[in-house]
Amino acid sequence: MAGSGKTITLEQTSSPNRRPDRQRKTLIGLGLNKLHRRSTLEDTPSVRGMVAKVSHMVRIVEDKT
Questions:
Q1: Residues 14-30 pLDDT 10s
Q2: Range 11-41 burial, b when 16+ CB lie within 10 A, else e
Q3: N or C, which end of the chain is more exposed by having fewer CB within 10 Å?
Q4: Nearest-angstrom CA–CA distance, 3 and 64
Q5: Taken in order 39, 41, 46, 52, is the CA torsion positive or negative?
Q6: H or E element: which one contains 40?
Q7: Contact 41, 30 (CB under 8 A)
């Protein structure tokens, strides 16, 4: 799976205020920390798991390129 070239782009849609510290740290681990920031990451099971933990605060952006 390494080097497969697949990526996933995330956008933060909600604030981590009044959320558990674990969720705040997960957002930082995904490269997000402010509203409407975007981050492009390699599409791996570990990244998908992190996205699942904060799915209520992020959305997957569909790039049409």
A1: 999 999 999 999 999 99
A2: ebeeebeeeeeeebebbeebebeeeeeebeb
A3: C
A4: 22
A5: positive
A6: strand 38-42
A7: yes
What gap in Å lies between CA 2 and CA 33, rounded to an integer?
A: 27
Six-digit token string for 39:
């981050």
Domain count, the chain: 1
Q: If pLDDT is split at 50, 70 and 90, which confidence band does 5 have?
A: confident
Amino acid at 25: K
| pTM metric for this prediction | 0.85
Residue 60 burial (C-beta neighbours within 10 Å; 0-12, 13-18, 19+): exposed
- CATH number reported for the structural domain that contains residue 45 in this entry: 3.30.1390.20
